[in-house]
Amino acid sequence: QVQLVESGGGLVRAGGSLRLSCAVSGSIFSFDAVNWYRQAPGNQRDLVAAITSGGITNYADSVKGRFTISRDNATNTVYLQMNSLKPEDTGVYYCNADRSRFGRLYNYWGRGTQVTVSS
Q: How many Å apart are CA 54 and CA 78, to the nearest integer?
């Protein structure tokens, strides 16, 4: 059973930094990508950053240059380093892992961690 456990959220002032962690059960290379999503109150869940099994990264335009996604292959942990935080970065951050098998897409989600950025 796949489990994703996020940690590292909290309350920070605008301009500050946080680092989120996502501990993945099993090898992260068994997934096509591990992703971070964000959901603000009343909004849909949006992709913030992604890292593929090949190490290719992708970011939402709103976080480019401020957020960095990385991984520790030895511990099967994916990180999201968030710098120069803005109040609009506030939301619940979810770790997601996806993989395609035999024409089907499988998605796995963590429970999320709250990030609140005060102005």
A: 14
* 43 in Cβ contact with 116 (< 8 Å): no
Alpha-carbon distance of 91 to 46, in angstroms, equals 10
Nearest partner of 39 among 90, 82, 3, judged by Cα: 90
CB atoms within 10 A of CB 2: 15
Chain segment 71-97, per-residue pLDDT in tens: 999 999 999 999 999 999 999 999 999
Q: Is 111 exposed, middle or buried (0-12, 13-18, 19+ CB in 10 A)?
A: exposed
% of the chain at pLDDT higher than 70: 100
Q: What is the pLDDT of residues 20-43, one digit of tens each?
A: 999 999 888 889 999 999 999 899
Query: In whole angstroms, what is the distance from residue 48 CA to residue 73 CA?
Result: 21
Task: Report the 10 Å Cβ neighbour count for 19.
Answer: 14
